[in-house]
Design brief:
single chain, 328 residues, Carbamate kinase
Length: 328
Amino acid sequence: MVPVTFSTFRPGGTALSPSFPGQILSPPERTAPSNPGLPLTTKDKAATLIEALPYLQRFRGKTLLIKIGGSAMDNPDLVSSLMRDIVFLEVAGINPVLVHGGGKAISSAMEAAGLEARFVGGLRVTSPEAIATVENTLGNTINPELVNLINQHGGRATGIPGTGVFEARRIQGTGENGEAVDIGRVGEVESCHTDDILYATTSDIVPVVSPLGRETGTGKTLNINADLAAAALACTLKPAKLVYVSDVPGLLADPANPDSLIPSVTPGEAETLIKSGIISGGMIPKIRSATEALEAGVEKVHFIDGRTPHTILLEIFTPEGVGTEITR
């Protein structure tokens, strides 16, 4: 195995525009509460708010693109908490854009319809019969549920079908021996139409986008891997952060040891992890698409665990963060 060294710190603040007098500084290291093990005092709560101030200043008016997927979407309480945190971002003057997956909900709907759920190289095989189930599950179940949760928590959200955002081309899968495999109505993004998304964010509305595309030339609906759809959208929107929320803690130096979290890597270090076999399978296209997003102008990409309460807020508003960040 190739030895790899990693960045073990998260960079401090950066200067704002010339019109801002001075520089945002990273907050001091955290100190333990005055009464560990007991409820926070009023002073502790105030200190927590002040600690978040530099991050609120830095990201106010910026766009954060958040992709939610994996089994993090299977727990209704966790999903509700995540949507409340997204409302917090919007109220704080940040512009969250949400892209969601389908995962187990689509598999369950396909099983109910008598269709087999199969995957090739991490991509769902989507027959002409299956695409109707995929589109119905994403557009009539998952997307409106997320929109409703945001609205219930006092925010404003709108569902945007991915077919109105993503222009896509059909692709083939890769079999175990490297051979091309027909996987049906599956595509990759060629370009993004962002007018509806930008209208929503400038109107203080959270856009919730499904991972479907319109095939160039035919207009047929294509199923798109949600991770890759989010990365492609990030290349166009160029948000301050692209955040993947899933059911893993981040990148692990030892995949069998959840305590071996790598807090920060560069694209070059990530590529070394791929070559050494530490990053493998479906994580490879996710990491490489994240690298493309960085090259397109995204400031940072984060992989965080949606099973951790308030994981998005911990990543954005604390100096230590959670999960793994990929930064140029």
